[in-house]
C-alpha cells in the first residue's frame, strides 16, 4: 500500500523543507484542547529554525507556550483571527517586534487563496486520516466535527502535513480534506485533550440580566420582518446568545415558522432547533459541543462548510451573504455602533473578530447583545478602544436597559417601535452606563503597535497599541 | 433572497464577457444526452463570437453540431479527452487549422489547475442547483450522479455559469460544486435527454469470444497475487469488461475476499459487488447507469470524487496511484504493448484516452482485453497507428487466443504460467491475427496534423494525421 506516513513530526518538518523566515499554519478546531500547535512549535524550536510567521486561525489559552517561542525568536510574526487573553496579555505588553495581524474567519481564507498571505507548511490536526491524507474531523477519539477552517490551508499551502491520532484504512470516506493536497501524514498518540476540544454541553445563561436581554433579542427578531418561512440564523455560543435561541425557538414553534438554515459555529441548541423543525439545514464551519459533533457525523441535513464557503469576501459568494439574522457579543460598543471584541477594558488583547465582522457584514440584521456595564466598566461608550466590526455593519444593540437601533436602519426602528419594544437612543444607554459606573478612565495605551485589525476588504481597520 | 440566476444563456455569456479568441469549457456527465454544449455554442455563434477554444472533457455523437461551428470559425481549437467517431471522422478529414489536443481525464484537470490550459468561461450542466450555484448531479429529472469532471472547471475558470433544469431552494445540501466558484446560474427547460444521459442498464456481453476473454481476465486477476483483502479495482463499461467483473465477483465471493474499493466510471455491476461485500467502497468520477446514480445518491459507501482526486498527475496523490487492477479495452495493441484507443483501423478519430492511460499508469496491474481481430482487421499489430497509452504502462493482454504478458512484468508471467493459464508471446498473437485477417493494409495517412495526444506528464505522446 502506498503511504505518506512518516515517522515523526520532526521528519515531516525536515521533508517539508521548513527554513528560517517561512510561514507555518494551524487551525483551531481542537480549540482549548489542541496539542498540535505546541508540539509542532516545540519540535521546530528544537531544530533551531527561527523567525517564523505563524498563521493560526485562532489561539487559545492552551497555546500560551507560543510566548516562549516568541521570546526565543522562533516566532517573529503572528497572523490570527482570535487570541485568548492568556496569550494576548503579553502580546499587549509589547514582546513582539512586529504587530499581530488580526483577520476574520472569512478574510483569512480569502487572503490565503489570493496569495496575500502565503503558507509554506500547513500542519493540520485531523481526528482521522488514511495513509495518503484523506482526512476528517468527524470520526476518531479526538473527533471535533467540522474542519472548515483548515480547508484553505490544505488547498493553498506549499506543503501540507496531516497530524492524526487515528489512521484509517484507505480510502477514508466522507473526507473533509483530500489526498490531492497532502504531502505527509504523521501518527501521534493524541492530537488533543477531548475535554478541551469540545465542551460536553454548551450552557444557556441563568443570569437574570442575560435572560432579559435574550428575551428582548428574540422579540427584536420576531418583529424585524425577517422571521418567516425560509429564515436563516447564526448565533454564538455565549450564554445570552444561546438563551436568545431558546426564546426564538419557542416563538418559531408557536408561530409555526419553518426556517431555512442555521449557520456558523454550531451548538447542540442549533441541533435541537433542526430536530424541532425550526430549520431544515445546518451549515457548520465549527462544532462547539458534542451534540454538534454527533449531528454532523450522522445527519445529512447538517453539513460541513469551509471557511471560504462560510464567509470569504474573496469568494463569488459565501453563505454569510445569504444570512438573515446574526446575534453577536461585544466587549465594547460605541455610540456609532462600532464594536470591539479584540481588547478588554484595560486595553489588553483578549479576543478577535472570528466570524464577527463577516456575519455582521453579510447578515440582513446584525444584532449585538451586551449588558450596559460589566464589572463596573461601561460597555456602551463614546469610542471603542479598538474597532473590530465597523458600526455601519451593526443594526441593533440589545441591552437590559433598552434596545438601540442604528439610525442607518430606520425601517427596523419603525418596526420595533410599532411592536412596542423599549427602543432607546444609544447615547442614553451610554449615559445610563456611565451613571452606574462613573465616567470610565480610558486605558493608557503605549505608542507601540502590537496589533493590526485587517478589514475583510484587506484595508487596515484599526491598530492596537501596547498597554503601558 | 440573493440570486445569481440570469434570464438566459445569452445574458450569462454577455455578463461573463466572452470575447473572440477566448476559451469555453464543458463537462460530459450528460454523455450522449447532453443538450448544454450545443445550446451554448449555438447561442455564442448567434452572438457573432469567433475563434474560440472549446475545452470539453469528452465529445459524444450528440455534439456533432460542433462541426458546423468549426466550419463557421466560431470554434478554432478543441481540447478534449475523448471524441466519438461521429465528430472525429470529419476532424480526421482535416476541417480544422489547428490540431485537436487530446488529454487524459487526469491530465485535463492537472493542466487546468496549473494554468497551462486556462478557461475563460466554464459552462457547467448541473441537474440541480440553488440560486447561488451550489449544485449537484445526484438529484433532479436529469440526474447523472457524479459531476467529477466538472470540478476543475468550476475551481479554476475565470467565470463559471451553471446551467440547470431544476432550481432548488438555498442552500442545496450535498453539493458537488459550491457557490464560492459560481458567477451565474441559468434555468433552462432541459439540460439533456435522460435516455442519453445514462443507460437504463449496462449490459454484459453475450458474445462467446467476449465471455472466453472475460473468464481468462478474471483468472489473470485471481492469480496475479493482488486478489486479496483490500483489493481495489476499476473496469470500463464495455461488455467484456463487465463480464470479467461478473466472473471476478464469483471468485471473490467463493474465496471470501473482501476488497477495498471499486473506482472509476461506476456501473450497476460495481454497485452489485459493493452490495455483495466484494468492496467496502466505491469512488465515482462518473456514473454510467441508473443503478450507479441511485447508489451514489443514497449509499454513503459510494462517493463522488473529482477528476483531480481520481487521476491528476499534478495532485500530491490521486486514487489511481493506489489502484491494484484495471481492465481496459483497445482498438489496437502492438507488440510493444502500446495501445491505441484514439483511431480506428482506417485512421479516423473515434475515441480517446479518457482514464485509459491514467489508470494504466497508476494501477499495479493494467490489463487490456481485446479480441485478436475485429471485422477482419487484426487488433494485435506491429505498431499502433496512434499511441494512446504507452506499452510501459500495460502489463498484460488477454485475448481469446491466449494471454500475453509484458516482458517487463516477469513476476506476473511466472505467476500466470504457474497457474496453468494459456500464456503466449504477443508476436504469436500478432501472427495468429494476421493469419485470420491477412496482413493488414495500414491506413494511408495524410500529412496534416489533426490531433496531438498529450501524455499525462505534459509531453507529446503521439500525433494523429489526417486521413487521405
Overview of this structure, please?
2 copies of one chain form a homodimer. Chain A is of the alpha/beta class and 468 residues long. Chain A has 2 domains: 5-197, Glutaconate Coenzyme A-transferase, CATH 3.40.1080.10; 208-444, Glutaconate Coenzyme A-transferase. In chain A, the strands form 5 sheets. In chain A, strands 1-10-9-6-2-3-4-5-25-26 form a 10-stranded mixed β-sheet. In chain A, strand 12 (261-266), helix 10 (268-275) and strand 13 (281-287) form a beta-alpha-beta unit. Chain A is globular, with a radius of gyration of 22 Å. The model of chain A has no long low-confidence stretch (mean pLDDT 96). Chains A and B meet through loops of A and loops of B.
Report the average pLDDT across residues of chain A. Answer: 96
How many strand units of chain A?
26
Query: For the CA atoms, what is the radius of gyration of chain A?
Result: 22 Å
CATH topology of the largest domain in chain A: Glutaconate Coenzyme A-transferase
**CATH-scheme architecture of the largest domain in chain A:** 3-Layer(aba) Sandwich
Q: How many separate domains make up the residues of chain A? A: 2
Structural class of chain A: alpha/beta
CA(first)-CA(last) distance of chain A: 59 Å
Specify which chain pair forms the largest interface: A-B, 36 and 36 residues
SSE order and pairing:
The structure is a homodimer of 468-residue chains.
Chain A: E1 5-6, H1 9-16, E2 23-26, H2 36-46, E3 52-56, H3 66-71, E4 75-80, H4 85-92, E5 100-102, H5 107-114, E6 121-126, E7 128-129, E8 135-136, H6 151-156, E9 159-164, E10 184-187, H7 194-197, H8 208-222, E11 232-235, H9 239-254, E12 261-266, H10 268-275, E13 281-287, H11 290-298, E14 302-304, H12 307-311, E15 325-328, E16 332-334, E17 339-340, H13 356-362, E18 365-369, E19 373-374, E20 377-378, E21 380-381, E22 396-399, E23 402-405, H14 410-418, E24 423-424, H15 426-437, E25 445-454, E26 460-467
